[in-house]
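A favour, since you know our structure tokens better than I do. It will help me judge whether the discrete encoding reads sensibly. The space below this message is yours for that.
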Amino acid sequence: MKQGLITFLVLCGFHIAAGQEKEDILVNINDQMEIINGYIEFEKFYLDPEEFLDKMADHGAELTGYYEHERLKKMVRKVGTRTADVITTFYFWNNQLIHVNYKQRPYLETKNESGQTILDYSNAYTKYESKRYFDNDKMIDKEVIGKPLDDIAPDKEFVGYANKMKLLLDNKFYNRDMYESLQGRWLFIQNTDDYIIFEGTIRFNFYNGKFANRLKTRIEDDTLICFFPMDDRTYRYKINDVNDTMLTLTDLSSQEEFVYAKVE
């Protein structure tokens, strides 16, 4: 009997301590979010839809990163579906995800000049919202308000996605000068019917004057990595030189050199 009572008291003490630790973490997270929201000199950085989506959204999409002191503090993803805007806000502290606010905002109805009821894509209201708190990549608390839309399954896996999007934003942010130098159309000087176009972090390939494919890119040191979003094919090129008129790349697999001239 005495041994059982001691065990019970130990377990109670453990749960009380764990609960207090969780409350302390939540207080810290809310304090950190307040600090982040209080920043007034964010450096905003953007990804175009092609850079972070595998298929286009019905009514536009945007991903905005908010940097302060060269670190991503907040990331806002907005995707316009057929019936609603889905807005997800991610908060980071010391490069770790601490909070996600997810909202489904259906469009309001209005009438056009013919009296027909249509959706007003410029006006929406929040029907469903979830708030999730994370510590060391593990969710420690969740709050849900409202019910999700029937045609939109709420996002549930946030940590992996947040880290993936953070890598995309960080890649473009920290290599912004190189990406700026790459923008535009480059003519392959050995065959002037072939050319490439860089738009943001996307590379478009044209052969014999016709579109061939598009690849996503990232930059690691002086290496340009080009890859297809939906498979494992990856191409690596050393950036030998890039200036206002010429771009020289070396294929790290074949060691073949490619020289391009800037045409626009």
